[in-house]
Amino acid sequence: MKPATAQLLVPFREVRHSRPDDCLHYEPIGVRGVLFDWTIPAHRHDGLHQFQLIERGAAAAVIDGREAMLEAPAILMMAPGTVHGFCYAPQTVGHQVTIPTTTLERSLQGAECVESLLAESFILDRSGLAEDDARYGSRLFESLAAEFVGYESGRVQVLLAQATLVAVWFLRRHQGKVSDARAPGLRDALVKRFRSLLEAHYREHRPLAFYAEALQVTADHLSRTCRAVAGQSALEMIHARTVLEARRLLAYTSQRVAEVGEALGFADPAYFSRFFARAVGESPTRYRHSVLDGVQVQAEAATGDAAERRPGQLR
Hints:
- This protein is about 50% helix and about 15% strand.
- It is an alpha+beta fold.
């Protein structure tokens, strides 16, 4: 296998709409596997959720800079903005469907038990996915695939219903494997609203009081709730979101460090560098070099050096 990430600014688009009523996109993994020599370069897509099931074969994945070795059966959900790339073993078999996030959220509206899990990407492979369960997932994808290539009336409505079934199946599998119990009810809803607000404003360096006021709670209550539900205080979540975007821009674009800082609302490049170094443990420049140097490491891992790593583990 080749490394999933080998260069910056990879011009890659995976979603294709060939009909006016294509409300989502489905295709077998092998379509782009053959087209790109089984290596999908690192890329990101905003406003889209992607669900992937690997039925047979394996893949080396890089997801927001973290590496994972996957053996079938495996499932992956990529949330909007997640930088991801894959290197599949030749002849890997599976499915993937990509659906606009707004469409998916409308379909799941009110289903708090699974809707709250949409914000973060996840993977689950053979160590946590039973063969019978994987076969059921395959049947869901096969039904969606048949409808996608068909011309029956009501195609859009059926596709959306089938995609909702696929998404709920994925999120239920993930929910069952979450080790830290999520707080139910109002606390979970508050953190969900905070995440949405943070996504809209994290580049603006808004103080914690801004978020608390917008959510009509005290700053202390917001922080306690975030820590109980997400394991981080509200301020830590704000910083973590900024650092995540900085990692993505440094690793997958050719923007200068000062330009990355400016894009994230830092007027002073030196302050951005100090902020990043405190959070990551190395300067932005050194981090970028580490990512590029890691290409060879990924290549070695894909050829077997990472076989001892627990399948499905992200690092």
